[in-house]
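job 3f2a | input accepted
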Amino acid sequence: MELSAPKGCRPVRLARSGRQRGAILVYSLIALLLIFLGALFALRGGLTDTGLTDRFSERQKNIQASDLALQWISSQIASTGATSPLELSAGSQTWYRPVAAASASVPDQQYWLTCINNATTTDTCAQATMPTGTSQTAWVFVQPTGRTDTSSCGTSGESAVYYDVWIHTLDARGQVGTDTEAVYRLCVG
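job 3f2a | predicted structure (189 res):
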């Protein structure tokens, strides 16, 4: 059975309709490409934000671990019989760095690498004992500042001797490090 146009009607040509379908296909492909690129940039931004948030979170954990390491070094200093300057009572401790106050410096990344992997007499530190469940590790050293004060220990007649405490904390993956400095005051008689 053959279909034919009713009498008086002309058959419709499909050539123009075929070109329209091709143009629609091209526009659709361009639209899909733009949507894909937009989704790709949104995903990239989300991954970047996640990475930054992760590093910020690890840095906050490292700072908290530094506080724990500071408590540890305070107990170490107290256990040396801290009634005399550390130059006399802590000279043999691995966490004490016996340098002249004028040559004391801020530790850089190379200092910490040397100290952690192969300590020397000038690049020395001790690994702080952290509480169970802490995933961070911390290394500490104490060095003299050369500052003293006769009035900050009250009326006891003792003088205050000040020390720099440096703490280097790493997350469990070893990717995010935090360096913290504190000043420790020791009242000696």
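job 3f2a | Residues 142 and 165 are 5 Å apart (CA to CA).
job 3f2a | closed
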